[in-house]
Amino acid sequence: MNTRLRAMFCDHLSILRGKYLPNSKIGTDSSRFCRSTFGVHYDKDLLDAPGAMMMQGLPDMELRWEEADIREGWERSTKVVLGDLYDDAGAPLGLCPRGALKRAITAWGAHGLRPKVGIELEAFALQADDTGRLRPYDTPGAVVYGTGMMSDPLRFNDAIWERAEQLGFSLDMITSEYDSPQFEYTLTFDDALKAVDDIVLFRQMAREIALEHGLILSFMPKPIAEAGGSGMHINFSFVDDNGNNALSSGPVGGPDNMNDLAKGCVAGLYRHHKGLAGLIAPTANSYQRLQPGSLSGFWQNWGGDHRNVTTRVSGEGGKKARLEHRTADASANPYTAVAAVLQAARLGLENGYELPAAETGDGFEKQDAKNSTGIDLKSAIADLRADTDLCDAVGAELTDNHIFMKEKEHRKTRDLEGEALRDFYVYFV
């Protein structure tokens, strides 16, 4: 087989969609897709969502990519590329999540700053039993920070690491998490667009390699009710025109050494806490993870080296100074999630939001915070709708479509429990 091209985009549901294209498409090029994909739900229901043009003839949109963005893929004789979406008139499509991230990057560029991002992904491995029902992957003796056969008897993570290394992904870590069979995958810091492109492709590659080993690797926020949740922690910093980390105020980080940029970012994330949840924790299952005392970014708070606050200010200074936002999960589109976090942070800086005191409670039995995310998808989407500043910053077209689809999702899932709710999402997230 001649080398082919797998051209893809990550849609509103965080599903990677695309086409296999011939060798002649390996270069700067494009391909057309039905725009009404943005009105298709997980259950393949076709909905007249804002911008999807479902009732206006289901017109095309165009995926465009640059030759420089084409890279080696993990399938035989296949290269991969992620592109940007344009409408049938040739204008950037407002629904495009990758476009939303580019707008956020440009907005920070107006301040002379270039966002750097590092994403931590968590996932559970599941396998089918003799009846075809999904059960947790059997990992006898697995422990938190576990490595080796006891944590991964099929060694599928070895295959993921090997392929990632061959393809140039900069892996920082793979390890077992607290609840078996949960694993964490972390890529190193990079420019925001490159970092998110990498995490989107890495996640798809990892799921497909796991499937080759007979496993469903699910990045759902909580696929196993009795286990902990899986997040998508977003770490970020900024590089200034001199190549320095703009969040740094010296060799030591933490709340006592925050500069005005850091304070503004944290204040913005604090102010837009409730609205953010509707974008970055966007499924019914997300709110089984977002609970008090769950290390999940539930409370509207911030602190230092504290895993039970939502925005964590790293104690490292200098080049390693960074902020970590802990609410997101990987049912969110990573482009949209990072764009939303960066835009909320920017609003805090530009609008001079007041920064409340840091959290002093332990987060398990006591917390200062009084406000939280919504308690379910319905309330979170209502909070997002009310946060017009955040919606405008991320992009009105994208958020209008998102709100419509997620309101429909609430209705689709409100009577589902247990495995039925899990199975609504598990093969897609």
What's the SSE pattern? Answer: EEEEEEEHEEHEEEHEEHHHEEEHHHHH
- Give the number of DSSP strands: 17
Reported by name, the CATH topology of the largest domain is Creatine Kinase, Chain A, domain 2
Q: Can you say what the CATH homologous superfamily of the largest domain is?
A: Glutamine synthetase/guanido kinase, catalytic domain
What global shape is seen?
globular
Which regions contain 5 or more consecutive residues with pLDDT less than 50?
Answer: none
Could you explain the architecture of this structure?
It is a single chain. The strands form 3 sheets. Strands 8, 9, 10, 11, 12, 13, 14, 15, 16 and 17 form a 10-stranded mixed beta sheet that branches. The protein is of the alpha+beta class and 429 residues long. It has 11 helices and 17 strands. The mean pLDDT is 96. α7 packs across α9 (388-394) and α8 (377-386) packs antiparallel against α10 (396-413).
List the helices and strands and how they pair.
Layout lengths: L3 E7 L5 E6 L7 E6 L25 E6 L5 E2 L5 E5 L1 E3 L10 H13 L4 E15 L5 E3 L19 H12 L3 E6 L5 E6 L2 E2 H21 L3 E3 L13 E8 L20 H12 L1 H8 L5 H4 L12 E2 L7 E3 L9 E3 L8 H18 L25 H10 L1 H7 L1 H18 L4 H8 L4
Parallel strand pairs: 1-6, 15-16
Antiparallel strand pairs: 1-2, 3-4, 4-7, 5-6, 8-9, 8-11, 8-12, 8-13, 8-14, 10-11, 14-17, 16-17
